[in-house]
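Input/output pair, single chain:
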Amino acid sequence: MGLFDLFKKKNSGDVAKDRLKLLLVSDRANCSPDVMELIKNDIINVISKYMIIDTDGLDIQITQTESDSNNGMVPALSANIPIKDMKNRSTK
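Output:
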């Protein structure tokens, strides 16, 4: 995330869409939208140490999936994170 991304204004439709996504995801995971936002921010911070990512294209979802141990359906976190470039590429 660049410095100017912090000051970029989103239109009301984008803000409403983001809030609806967070509400749906948090409902599926039985956690609050605030916790989902913290998780999203933590993921962005960690990935951003190693890669330049497109935060606007970031999509984090919690879905239901069959467990490997046949315990029924369990929540699964999936993240679609568009990568623009790698940071600190070492030359060999």
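Residues 19 and 80 are 18 Å apart (CA to CA). Confidence is low (pLDDT under 50) at residues 3-7.
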